């Protein structure tokens, strides 16, 4: 660590909300941010995934939370309002980031918040057990001249591991306040709030002085970027270091201003790169890690480790290929039972059949049909595809119970720390189809509700991965409602069920593998913090579930209403009858009775309705044997339901959504045709 404690001359200038002096003045003089009549504070939480940022966020804000997409992206941002000692505060929970040198879309959004929204205080949340690994980002935030407070979270878990940290010494070395917390237990939150109100930089140190080649390049770059747009938000030293890491986004921003010289900037970066044995980004990372190791060693104490605890043994078992597979099977069964059986069965039956079917819909049908004499208009609201009888009924009576139970289960799994372990377990398999372990979240969610899973593809790092995952969800992942019906109609033969599972699984792998080689784009790196296992806290689960349900009610329900209007118009124009008539020859060609065409058309509007149509044909004796198996396969692979399709348009754009649906429709029937001909060729009759 450097002993330099002088303030950089190129720190960004910004008015102090307390006295309207520049930032340097505010920090040197140590003004309190809590002033009578002062404007509200803006606080940004940053840090790696799985360090407890959400716990800190909820501890600071309670339930006053708003979820929105960051402009121009599909990344969710949590914003909360609070009052600290009569001072209004806005808290922003940024997506996880490992470095200011952003790679993923989430990291780019997190950096954009730091650079564009100019928070008054930046809380760098760190897992206290992994201090050494997380300090390099702290150095970067300090180098950027941001008003940093280091939050050493999970101090209770660090203590349980025999780790002690001298927070006072760490604060003195870093030159910024350091607060120890255990946010999930509420420990240290009062001290953190006071530190925010009393914020002052202890000193403005340069945390690291790099080797001569780096420092010379930084000295040459600083004058060229000092007047650039990024220099209004972060120090020109930090901009220079990001340029040496070849951060293209920063380079574009740094060369936007008048008089900027992009060619000179490129020349300096190239000269530095050619004069080093390794890439500047690698040299900087090594220097930061060495400084982090030295600092962590000076402030941490470690007791002798005890016996391997049960939680650690369970953690290792979750990531082992054999035991991890068994645990995953148990988790999926529990999820299927809670979401598929209880949510999609019991709760949907109660709401859809009892509440909407016997109370709400009959009331509105009788009322509106009497008030509106024109049947075409009344059908818009209470007809077969009416806004109330279809759109609202689906959104509230069907999808809401499913996503509610899933949100509860998912929040419990998320809070327990199982998801990172599942991602590590699945990563090797998913790499074969162009994805990584992070894709396990939407894929597992798809077994509950593909519509919700399509929204969760936002967690994927690259556009390429989001498109592949969306394609696989639309093609080969049946939702819980459809899955239950298909299991029911195929239960007459174990051979049918195993063949169906094998065909759908083979399609999933084959299409994923082909898509990964056809769809352009870079493969995303996969790295993930693995937090300790812990029992989910009821308050955390309820807060996350509440926030996600609030978002669902505001963002998704309008799409169901739009879908019902589109279907009403199609029915009124006779387009639905045309679709059924046009599909009959296709259905017969692949060996399925023509009567099943209605089930496939209805299956686009709601997947389990389509599967239920096959069930009715089976009960009537019109569908059996090989035709039943082929029907089940085609129905599973058939185009996504209207709700999922609408969300695909919202998330991926209409061109991508139409392209995916346009591929799936003929492909599903081609697979059915191939299966029918293969069974006939082999002389197999199920």
Quick overview:
Helix content is 63%, strand content 7%.
Rg computed from alpha carbons, rounded to a whole number of angstroms: 29 Å
Dominant shape: elongated
Structural class: alpha/beta
Report the end-to-end length measured between terminal Cα atoms. 73 Å
Strand residue content:
5-15%
Strand order within the widest sheet? Answer: 2-3-4-1-5-6-8
The parts where pLDDT drops under 50 for at least 5 residues are: 1-36
Helix content: 55-70%
- For the secondary structure, the number of strands is 9
Q: Outline the biggest β-sheet.
A: 7 strands, mixed
Q: What is the mean pLDDT?
A: 80
How many helices does DSSP assign?
A: 30
What is the assembly state of the chains in this entry? single chain
What distinguishing features does this structure have?
seven-stranded mixed beta sheet, 9 strands, 686 residues, 63% helix, alpha/beta, disordered N terminus, two-stranded antiparallel sheet
